[in-house]
Amino acid sequence: MPKDVLIVGGGVVGLSTAHYLASAGHPVRIIERDESLAKSCSEGNAGMVVPSHFIPLAAPGVISQGLKWMLNPKSPFFLRPRLSPTLARWIWLFAKHSTKKHVADTQELLRDLSLESRRLHVELSENENFPLIQKGLLMLCQSDAGLAEEAEVAEHAHTLGLEAEVCDHKRLKELEPNAEITAKGGVWWPQDCHLSPGQFIKALRQSILKNGGEFISDEAEKLEAANGKVKSVTTRSGRSFSADTILLAGGINTTELAKQVGLALPMQGGKGYSLTLPKPVANPLLCSLLKEGRVAVTPMGETLRVAGTMEICGTNTLVSKPRLQGVIEAFCKFYPQYSPSDFADLEPWVGLRPCSPDGLPYLGFAPHQDNLIIATGHSMMGLSLAPVTGKLVADLVSGTKPAIDLAKLAPGRF
Length: 414
Prior knowledge:
Elements: E1 5-8, H1 12-23, E2 28-32, E3 48-49, H2 62-69, E4 77-79, H3 85-97, H4 100-128, E5 137-141, H5 144-159, E6 165-168, H6 169-175, E7 185-189, E8 193-194, H7 197-210, E9 214-217, E10 220-226, E11 229-235, E12 240-241, E13 245-248, H8 254-259, E14 268-277, E15 287-290, E16 295-300, E17 303-312, H9 321-334, E18 349-355, E19 362-365, E20 372-376, H10 382-398
Parallel strand pairs: 1-2, 1-13, 2-9, 4-17, 5-15, 13-20
Antiparallel strand pairs: 3-8, 5-7, 6-7, 10-11, 11-12, 14-17, 14-18, 15-16, 16-17, 19-20
Helix pairs in contact: 1-7, 1-10, 4-10
């Protein structure tokens, strides 16, 4: 039987969910405060679909590397110090999960989510008519230590059945004939893909509207709950909405709404920047990640997007000029046909990735609320995992047993 679903959040996760629900005949309404998504993580991200990312954000070595970077104003990582019990709890939980055991316990789950999401991305591309570039991703390394580390990740990937090829500089030139690269070597991940987030979002919105979905331009502000159910969602403009099922998929803003029904989601905003060159001098064929600079590079049609940084900053969206300059300089070191002056007149995009302390999304029913589903906390993999998240939520709404066990993603796990 069709269920009326109200979705709070119109980014890639909310839209993907609405697509699968509307396609299955469920009446769907989406509340989105910013229809342009200019302030969300969806519009300006790197557009990568990454089965290669089977290691969670919370992993061995992350904390020690982060501490080294803290004193460098141009480094790709920064944690903004502040007196905050929620930040202290998040840091404690992150440290607790940054272990080899946690990686071992979650790698197969992340692999399965990513591979299924890649399959769904391909299916969506074919059915909804938007380009998905299936040429793989290059992890580029300029140091021997970096290359050795990534070669070890590639070897680990093989044990999970993932494809990865360790490359010398000559092989990199074969794979990437369109742009000069300064790197000792790298790893080619042939199963990875890339797309334009703008085109992806447009295709999803068109599909939702075609199947009877409705968009509400407003901001959800208050949840009213009673007897184990969310009865209504009230918006900033004073309108009230109810539905059989409520989905919170509003990224970092989900935390405040969840708190109103007794769910304290440990989550921090991970600020990232991107710059999009409208007329790149040499547009790469493949997307890439720059190991030493922690920068993402994605060709999007005739444009080129360069993205980076991870600033654990709460909800602060101010631009750090030194850190933005660090992204630009790191990119230019790997791609010598470019110089920082190429970016001089570009307006940076800023977004807050919703980061859970164990590097896993929150996906499932909220504890103590029978009709409330949470889908957030995807960190840097929101676009990559959006289709599988949407499909799994649609299964939950329909009462179908999800094909992937969601126990480790439970919103109440902390």
